[in-house]
């Protein structure tokens, strides 16, 4: 059984990974603990509207994300957040 009707075939294919395996690999990287601590330190600093935001850690929104307990989620180094970026790619190329 084909997933595509007629002669339609995607012009590009994309790989996906199991989230649990990817997360295990991500957390086992040697530098990840230091990077997460650094991110939490950035989040602990108060928002400064006078500096140019060169990355997401400088933004007001990053510092205002609340967790289920209503405390600042990004201040804890192992509180991970994931974003989904959709580029609206049409695999059929039309």
TrEMBL record:
Name this protein carries in UniProt: Uncharacterized protein
Organism: Austropuccinia psidii MF-1
């Amino acid at each position: 059984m084909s997933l595509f009707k007629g002669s339609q075939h995607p012009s590009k294919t994309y790989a996906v990974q199991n989230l649990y395996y990817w997360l295990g690999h991500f957390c086992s990287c040697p530098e990840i603990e230091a990077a997460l601590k650094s991110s939490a330190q950035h989040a602990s600093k108060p928002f400064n509207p006078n500096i140019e935001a060169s990355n997401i850690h400088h933004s007001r929104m990053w510092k205002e994300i609340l967790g289920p307990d209503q405390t600042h989620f990004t201040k804890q180094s192992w509180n991970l957040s994931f974003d989904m970026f959709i580029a609206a790619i049409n695999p059929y190329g039309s």
